[in-house]
């Protein structure tokens, strides 16, 4: 353990007015706390940056309470126990938790999970074997109910969630079609992850290219984006199609996200289910066990964008919202 008596943390200084700007955050240096009985002190190695954080920055009603001003920004972390007054955790244990945008954190053990880094990199527990992976697993298996031979479409296909959805769909014997921004991300989805096709929505022919990639229509959609991308999928849906609505990143800064093909909900008798993966913790042991095994043997692939140091978190987060990252966006804290 470092002998330092202070550590850095990032707090929410102000709520965004439209686009997130660096001034919405403030870097602070605070004393390392003294542990009480039952607590553990963790040195965070990696911080996860995720689109849901944008919604938490607003005061509007949502599925979770708003991020309080002048407190540590919410976020998933993975690190090492450096001091413990909790018999369930020993110094040296690697743990995944929700300790936020900070170099260190204190936990009473709630929502703190030991992880095994023998065959799985520590960082993967914030991605393919963490909340993003579980989001993909839940949406696919519990809402989309894939059947062999069906066509599955996933938006933001090269991202932390979408990349797992596509690979799992292939394991289920489906045709996996991605939608991503840029030729490089699409090539990665096809050549590295094994998608059957990937449509570049930035190429200017989304509807036409999606039609070519889904000649037999679409049976199920994993939606991360909303807006034009979701609308194009609705036009291609087959009867009794299933839609797992995970994210609407196209509207996270207040932009309108209109749909023109709403009629498809009725004419195709579609089942649309929005979901928040943290509300289904009873399934996490099953899903994470499956994902961990796939990553350990190299069958489930993932890619990471890693920013260095807590100071870089605001810019990396703004880049994530603009699609600048490639794969899972992390901040390396040590």
Task: Please outline what is shown here.
This protein has helices at residues 52-56, 131-144, 162-171, 183-191, 206-213, 227-234, 263-267, 284-296, 313-321; strands spanning 6-12, 25-31, 40-48, 77-84, 94-97, 104-107, 113-114, 151-155, 175-180, 197-200, 218-223, 237-245, 271-274, 304-308, 328-332. With 334 residues, the protein is α/β, with parallel strands linked by helices. α2 (131-144) packs across α3.
Helix content: 10-25%
SS summary, helix count: 9
Q: Rg from C-alpha positions? A: 20 Å
Strand content: 25-35%
The class by helix and strand makeup works out as alpha/beta
Unreliable residue stretches: none
The helix-strand sequence is: EEEHEEEEHEHEHEHEHEHEHEHE
Task: Give the total of beta strands.
Answer: 15
Biggest sheet descriptor: 7 strands, mixed
Amino-to-carboxy terminus distance: 12 Å
Task: Give the overall form.
Answer: globular
Mean pLDDT: 95
Describe this structure in words.
- By secondary structure, this protein is of the alpha/beta class.
- It has helices at residues 52-56, 131-144, 162-171, 183-191, 206-213, 227-234, 263-267, 284-296, 313-321; strands at residues 6-12, 25-31, 40-48, 77-84, 94-97, 104-107, 113-114, 151-155, 175-180, 197-200, 218-223, 237-245, 271-274, 304-308, 328-332.
- Helix 2 (131-144) packs across helix 3 and helix 2 crosses helix 8 (284-296).
